[in-house]
Specification:
single chain, mainly alpha, 0% strand
Length: 170
């Protein structure tokens, strides 16, 4: 009788320890999920700030374009250079699009917190990529007097996008 009551006591103790471990595990999972949601929200807010900044720079460049004086015959001289510049950056963006596609595939294969974070990162990078594309689309409206300022802004935006994608790919 004494052996069976000891066995019952050990069994009850084991059951209570197992229940406590399950509760802790569920609590840890909830905390991890909450943390992942916070990280995703922060990443989305950062993406929105980055896009707003890129759009602000594009608006400033466009404002410079509208206010700049036209230079006679400059279009004939600058047109080939502009075309080359645009081709170069469109090729760079195509390469960056491939890297983004690889990140999206990685996010699709991920699970849990890693998936939430990768999805948020990809969303932010896609928004940043779209802003750079909009800047390049404005190239046709840029006056000659502000072309160099425009290209500096675009170059910086492309460099920032490339750095962000490379960082996310590590």
């Amino acid at each position: 009788m004494r052996a069976s009551s000891n066995l019952l006591a050990v069994g009850a103790l084991a059951a209570s320890l197992a229940a406590a471990a399950c509760q802790k595990s569920a609590r840890q999972q909830q905390e991890e999920a909450d943390e992942a949601r916070r990280a995703a929200t922060e990443a989305q807010q950062k993406a929105q700030r980055d896009v707003a900044e890129a759009e602000r720079r594009a608006r400033e460049a466009a404002a410079e374009v509208r206010g700049a004086p036209a230079v006679a015959n400059a279009d004939a001289v600058l047109a080939p250079n502009r075309g080359e510049y645009l081709r170069k950056h469109r090729d760079e963006l195509a390469s960056l699009d491939q890297k983004l596609a690889s990140l999206e595939a990685e996010a699709a294969r991920a699970s849990g917190r890693a998936k939430v974070e990768l999805d948020a990162t990809v969303r932010r990078l896609r928004e940043q990529r779209a802003a750079v594309g909009r800047q390049l689309d404005m190239a046709g409206t840029v006056a000659d007097g502000v072309w160099s300022s425009f290209t500096e802004n675009v170059d910086k935006a492309v460099d920032d996008l490339e750095a962000a994608i490379d960082k996310a790919s590590r």
